[in-house]
Amino acid sequence: MLTHLQNKVLLIVSKHLKDKPITGKEISEQIGLMDRQKFKEGADIRSIISALRIKGYPICAIGNGYFYADTYTELTRYIDSFQARIDAQIQACDGLKKSYPNIGREFVSEEQESDEPIRKVRRGNPEVWVVKGSKKNHDVVITNMFYSCTCEAFRFSSKHKCKHTEKVRIAKRDEIKAEQAAAPSLFPLTFKHTNQPN
Ligand SMILES: [Zn+2]
Q: What is the extent of the structural domain holding 119?
């Protein structure tokens, strides 16, 4: 069962073969969608086309026009290109899922980066350090005190460490020492007072 609009669109598109595609705008002009929904006509036609495809009509697209498949090859080619776009979208989505450690991260040019053997690029949780490797740089990410590294050695390490995570551990130890040295009065004084006999 098709809706009234789906039926109208199908009648138009099915008359347009690959050598004579029709744009979404032209379709909406022909069915009179344009006047009622001036700003949404493109989106509307897209969703009607999508619904028709779901119902099993071989509507393909080329450039910015739609056409009705006339041969198996036309349909197969279009399905392949459609699938490739979906695969790229899935890859992008998977990449986004891995991008949490890069939230709020600052990036510098590669020349600058290569000068420093180890450098903190993100504060907070997760904290991110870039460690210069022999071939390429690796990210050491500290999430809730848990260290991880992007290198191969870390991935296969049963002890969840590699030379990069250990370098960052040392750097963090030095960092804490430096912070304590910068604020020397806080802890020693408190202890001195409480430990003093009356
Ligand atoms: Zn590593």
A: 104-195
pLDDT in tens, 160-186: 999 999 999 999 999 889 888 887 665
Q: How far is the CA of 148 from the centre of ligand 1 (A)?
A: 8
Cα(135) to ligand 1 centroid in Å equals 12
Q: Tell how far the Cα of 56 is from the centroid of ligand 1, in angstroms.
A: 50
Q: How far away, in angstroms, is 165 Cα from ligand 1 center?
A: 6
pTM (two decimals): 0.60
The per-residue DSSP string of 20-85 comes to S-EEHHHHHHHHTHHHH-TTTHHHHHHHHHHHHHHTT--EEEETTEEEE--SHHHHHHHHHHHHHH
Q: How many domains does the chain have?
A: 2
- Residue where one domain finishes, among candidates 80, 97, 114: 97
**Whether 31 contacts 5, CB under 8 Å:** yes
